[in-house]
Design goal:
Number of helices: 13
Order of helices and strands: EHEHEHEHHEHEHEHEEEHEEHEHEHH
Oligomer: single chain
CATH topology of the largest domain: Rossmann fold
Shape: globular
Distance between the termini: 41 Å
Structural class: alpha/beta
Number of domains: 2
Low-confidence stretches: none
CATH superfamily of the largest domain: Thiamin diphosphate (ThDP)-binding fold, Pyr/PP domains
CATH class of the largest domain: Alpha Beta
């Protein structure tokens, strides 16, 4: 094993897949000289050249449209959309071309497009550059969604996404990049299957499902709750589509309680969809109502004090867990 940063894990995953498969290429804004704003693709232009690392105009709809065309002719494009809010500019291409074409052609046309970009608050980047859009993206039928929270997970999930014959989006949390999150990854090549959750901490009293930065806050809260005699099982779904429902159900069968921590406004969040699934498929296993620890239904503030207040934190999770366990 070796220790690398979350950022380095992104770079290694893309580098390995470009070396393995000549049909893989990157396109997006500022991916050549900068390697994207935080440098996740740094060095790849020097290594693979202008035919495989392409700078584009500031036109997200055109970027995704070109990727769709390239994918239908046998290429495996990686689209750097920069910030996931910019997906709103190209949602027509995503919903009507990228996500539907394989289904509408009976599987004859493959759409191996990987979309990558920053998500998440905590860096005072304001409402236009800080959102997690997972709940909205889950509505894009045909799109797979990876939600990596550690260097190990992001490397393995990106590699699987690039090899997938359906479109996959891999948002990565800006806070985990900016704060230099480190973790161990194998020296040898590996992948993580899409649709396989991971139990990050075992427990017996309550199940907490969390992603991205919220996973790390959930783990910190679980440590504090253990001191109060409450044993928390923390599950990282790793992908929202496909969702490993059985992993969550198996945990709830053991604990009887479920809390979902999600850095999205509560209305329309991924937490809401997971709650609905568990209410339908695991209701008889629950000893208490499902709780969601989410952000309020407002845009994300820019000033650090207000942004901190807006984001779900450990204390909110501790309060929710304590309430359903009392």
């Amino acid at each position: 094993m070796k220790e690398i940063t979350y950022l380095k894990a992104i770079n290694e995953a893309v580098d390995e897949e470009m070396a393995r498969d000549p049909t893989v290429f990157i396109m997006g804004e500022d991916v050549r000289a900068w390697g994207a704003p935080f440098g996740e693709f740094k060095g790849l232009f020097d290594k693979y050249g202008p035919k495989r690392v392409l700078d584009t105009p500031i036109d997200e709809r055109a970027i995704v449209g070109v990727a769709v065309g390239a994918a239908t002719t046998g290429m495996r494009p990686i689209v750097n959309i920069m910030f996931t809010e910019f997906l709103c500019v190209c949602m027509s291409e995503i919903l009507n071309a990228l996500c539907k074409t394989r289904y509408m052609t009976g599987g004859k046309v493959k759409l191996p497009v990987t979309i990558m970009g920053y998500c998440g608050a905590g860096q005072s980047a304001a409402g236009e550059h800080s959102s997690c859009l997972d709940g909205a993206l889950m509505r894009a039928t045909g799109l797979k969604i990876a939600v990596p929270s550690t260097p190990y997970d992001i490397k393995g999930l990106i590699k699987s996404a690039i090899r997938e014959d359906n479109p996959v989006i891999v948002p990565y949390h800006l806070n985990l990049i900016a704060n230099g999150l480190k973790g161990e990854v194998p020296e040898e090549e590996y992948t993580i299957p899409l649709g396989k959750a991971d139990i990050k901490r075992e427990g017996s009293d309550v199940t907490v499902v969390a992603t991205y930065l919220m996973l790390h806050r959930a783990l910190a809260a679980a440590t504090k709750l253990q001191e109060k005699g409450i044993s928390v099982e923390v599950i990282d779904p790793r992908t929202l589509v496909p969702l490993d429902k059985q992993a969550i159900i198996n945990s709830v069968k053991k604990t009887g309680k479920l809390v979902i921590m999600d850095e999205e406004p509560i209305t329309g969040s991924a937490a809401g969809e997971i709650s609905a699934i568990m209410a339908e498929e695991a209701f008889d296993l629950l000893d208490a109502p499902i709780k969601r620890v989410c952000a309020p239904d407002t845009p994300i503030p820019c000033t650090p004090p207000l942004e901190k207040l807006w984001m779900p934190d450990e204390e909110e999770l501790i309060k929710a867990v304590t309430e359903i366990c009392s």
